[in-house]
Design a protein that fits this description.
heterodimer, A: about 90 residues, mainly beta, 3-stranded antiparallel sheet, 8 strands, B: about 230 residues, alpha/beta, 5 helices, 11 strands
Chain lengths: ~90, ~230
Amino acid sequence: MIGHVDGNALAGPLSEIFEFDATLAITDCLGCRDIAMLAEAMVYGDNGHGLVVRCKNCGGVLMVIVPEPEHTKLDMRGLAWLQVPN
Amino acid sequence: MTAVHEETVTGRSIRLKIPGWGGNLAGQHLDLRLTAPDGYTAVRSYSIATAGDDASIQLAVDRVMDGEVSPYLVDDLMVGDELEVKGPLGTWFVWRPEPTGTVQTDPVQLIGAGSGIVPLLAMIRLHAASGSTAKFRLLYSVRSPEDAFFAAELMAQHPLLEVTWVYTRATPEGWPTPAGRVTKEIIEAATFASTQNPLVFVCGPTGFVESVASTMVALGHDPATVKTERFGGL
């Protein structure tokens, strides 16, 4: 995958982890406090090797999804919070 | 895979029959996984060109140079072959004729480039099938007439759909304007004004989508009404 895509592409990978459509979650970027829907984030990488999700406003890393044989790691240190619809 | 149609020099549309598919909304995608004999896997997202309850769906794939998945889908895949898919996925970049149970009549502005037309086409098809009275406009940017996906279908008459074509490298014979990229002036002339409060959907390569989306915001559209889907690339 050249360049980046957007958070719509996270729907598949995150469907294994969250029960709801995670692309509808609202994120608060720890770096710039921009609040946006995950569907609008910038997404780099690919499903096989890892996905880096960046804030559309400041480019800071929001989360990193790392697939490994036995588990998938979700590094969310760039988020102040994640808000999900009820 | 049940049927294939060569759409452009580098792309084709593909019909898949998926047992157990519960249907999908207009604008959704699926993830397709290819597994090589050595176990190496590659997953790519493809937007679905159809919408509704049918278990027979349609995708369109453009061959990406040095791509890991698209060359196989465009050049090698044959009728009868099976594919591993997950979906339908994504509920943000979708258009619903009746989003809250009441009929939605806001105008809808679709802007696409190349294979970015695919989810927009699902919306156009659903618009026609649902009898929605919302006005639709499509601005479709392609390199040349041979690079347009679903050209015949888009050129046919649709009541309530206005289509503006932009050719960036080569125009059809007798075309009134020279080839060139989509500009702010072209966008302004061809799209619903912000005062008409359209829902806007922009899809295509990342660079195109980002440039068009910021232009729409500069033209006064509320960013919350402009939804985007980037396909990657440049």
